Amino acid sequence: MKITILGIGVAGGFGTGVKEMHDALLSGQGNHSTILLENCGEPLALPAFRADTSRLKDFVPQKALRRIDNFSKLGLLGAYLALEDAGLLADGCHDQLGVVIATGYGATGTTFAFIDSFINDGDICASPTHFANSVHNSAAANISMLLGATGPCSTISQFHHSVPSALQTASLWLTEGRADRVLFGAVEELSELIGYAWYRQRGYPVHAGMKPLMTGMESALIGEGAAFMLLSRRDEEREGYCQLEQVTTGKGLAPGFLDCADDLLLLGADGRQEIGAAYATVAEHPRIACFTGLYSSSSAGPAFDLAAAALMLKNDQTYPDPSGGTCDFQATVATGGEIIRTSRISSLSLSEDNGFGLVTLKRV
Amino acid sequence: MTFSPVAITGLGCICAAGNSLDDCMRSIFSGARNPAPPLRFSSNHPIRYPVFEIPDFAEPSGMLRTSALGLHAAREALADAGLEREFLDTLRVGVCMGTTVGCAMSNETFCREYRSGNLPDMTLMETILRSNPASVIAREFGFYGPCQTIVNACSSGTDAIGLAASWIRSGVCDIALAGGADELGRITYLGFISLLISDENPCRPFDINRKGLNLGEAGAVLVLESEKVRSIRRKKARSFMLGYGSACDAYHLTAPRPDGAGLKSAITEALACNVINPSSIAFVNAHGTGTPENDKVETRVLAEMLPGVPFLSTKGYTGHTLGAAGAIEAVFTAACLELGRIPASAGFVTPDPELGGTPVTEITSFDGTIALSGSLAFGGNNSVIILGKAGES
Hints:
The complex is a heterodimer. In chain A, 30% of the residues lie in helices and 24% in strands. Chain A is α/β, with parallel strands linked by helices.
């Protein structure tokens, strides 16, 4: 059975939608701003990739968005953009549409707002609205509600390993016929306390931009965003970006496992020094690319990687390395404008606990 | 599409009813239940709502209690399955766990310190980051197969088992540990109180005077095993996963769809997995939270789709254990299939004419070999699994 990526919906530091992502990939220019925090009571502006959800008003009436928090807005925007990109926005029949969301941290802004509600005013004043929206599956639920998607609906949270795990679930649902189409997406929200925890763990960034292929140094920048794909198993829907050929997850990626020959290998290296060495070890590969510098170190990153891979397969060309091709291990970094040459691109993400996710996309 | 049954060869659980499956079964068949105001945390809320705490369980430092509960259940399930570490090392073993709080970056102490302009202790956040429930189990046993934590609110445990069965059928792994875990804490305690769906008294699922749920905490794990591995070690199954269905209400964040359409779809899908006739269902371990709306919708759907089938809620013995609920109820369902009887639905006294039926009020024997366990969740998720007695499926 073939699974086709029919549409892509993205929102991140680079902008909103496939075109703005494509433009950012072509230019190799990331665009980070800041998130405002407090450190021991003092204000602090931490560099961060922020996403803008204002385009959501093109799809959902303002009134319906009143009680929807930023986390769910990010998810909704990604979902609607993917449907729009697939030309299926007007297709109101979503009874066989499944929804699978990957999120590392969930609706953290609302979770902290809920805690604030009883810290500030006592236990009896805990906010029911914040509590109801703080559950990890709130974005998936809001997407299902607003789209009328009555198929299966699931949210996976495996921190930096959430995306390949969730994609594996989406793939199984389609293979087993539990859904005809699945809206698969990753959502990560940057809230104040998450930003603060990041700052405490990693300190203030030393470098202005990310250099993820310099694996021996720390260059991660925090960010948020949503990356969605509309997947279809229908025979009549074969004209999309590419096909999802394989998803493998597990622990202990052995050297030589990456049996992708001359295929372009897209690395999820994201400037975190503690995981950099693992990428350098397994990815000594003829041809690699890495675009996380355009959308941050985020558990949603591997989903943006898949969107980039799908765009490359469809356009049959590579994008330039955002950090200028600097790499501290033995590999050939693809430059912009090269022909893809092969019919597949594989995307590799690694986690600190020796976990891996390998996703292979194939040209239609 | 129909699916081959998947063998369940090991069961493990811990909850307020007991620290092992045997303890739990003895306790619930004795009718014992002891909900009481929380001891592990305090609250300045004027009402002290009862909960189902596990009294004699301590998590190791640096690990969330949620993950420790899951790990405890996993150890029991692996021992029950007779799986030794050396043999497991030769297999691709996956872990799929459901939870609600096990992945949440929510630590009240950290928040209070931050808001006060102090320097919060980062070990609080690092503990959460190290305690993903599925990852903890995989790390403890050195498993290298797929590893997923499902966060579908109260259907998480049921969904984890359904997904793990798909892993086995598709060959993604040889063995899967599947289940759920969740701990009691102030955040969920105050959250459910704020939603006005907590009962000030011991919960009364399906009773006319029900006022809501009592929270509980639990860990529960099932060992799902491929036929290839089972034939190598000639292991008898305890039960079989026959069906799984899941559908979304797409209706409301916290309330079930009044017509029960999502639950009906989930039941229909689960039955279709093995072309199971509804009349062959021996009993239903219902979600049965004791909230007015859940019990109304659920009983009406059961009356329509599985008329006359005995049903119960075991939440009267365990409390609502959120992400662990579907898993612990699946474990109880498998154990009851072996015993050929189900306990009384604790807390039920007076029928509610608004409901589609009444649960069993005493220990009830049955002749059938197939049972259904269902979960309804925030976000509109409805998930159902169907289990078959070993040797009969």
